[in-house]
Amino acid sequence: MRLFGMVSLRPHGQIHFMTCKALESDNAGKAEGASRNINLILPMPPSANVYWRTTARNGFAHTYVSDEAKAYKASVARLVGIATPVYSAIALSVKVFRPQRSGDLDNRLKVLIDALKGVVYADDKQIDEIHAFRYEDKFRPRVEVEILVKGLC
After folding, report:
1. pTM for the whole thing?
2. Of the four, 29, 39, 48, 107, which is 20 to 30 A from 55 by CA?
3. Which residues lie below 8 Å from residue 120, measured CB to CB, with a gap of 6+?
């Protein structure tokens, strides 16, 4: 379902977004370079340690994305529900609420960034700034993402 404003994802999370058409009409008469935020609360991504799998084929190593990673990307696309990805430069602020004190912060970031690619933004090369924070929350592990869109689309 695509709606403007707030869409409830689950009892503890919400997603806020605006499409490019809404941004253009909302920014009519405003200064150039205006920016918008997209705020997401998503499930905890799998670790990068289980994101890729490697097998041998005809004597050569073949690396591919795991089924767990594909399932995570599909769930992110389903939860976000943005019809058209953003094409302008963006900045990410990510808060990872992990269930226990283990694992590297950057292992989760790469998987999350890849899952958002093609869904919220067209390509991860659009990201020119990243801020990441790690917290513990054993009762509600999650990732809170704020995407600052640095242009209109």
Report:
1. 0.73
2. 107
3. 38, 40, 80, 82, 85, 86, 147
Q: Rounded distance, CA 99 to CA 84, Å?
A: 32
Q: Which residue has the tokens 């269930």?
A: 99
Could you read off the pLDDT of 1-39 as tens digits, one per residue?
A: 332 223 333 333 344 444 444 444 444 444 455 568 899
Q: Characterize the bridge pairing of strands 142-149 and 36-42.
A: antiparallel
DSSP 119: T
User: Reading across the β-sheet that carries 5-10, which strands appear in turn?
Assistant: 5-10, 13-17, 36-42, 142-149, 90-98, 127-136
Structure tokens, 124: 């991860």
Instruction: Tell me whether strands 127-136 and 90-98 are parallel, antiparallel or unpaired.
Output: parallel
* Planar angle of CA 78, 81, 83, nearest 5 degrees: 130
Residues β-bridged to residue 77: none
* Count of all residues that appear for the chain in the document: 153
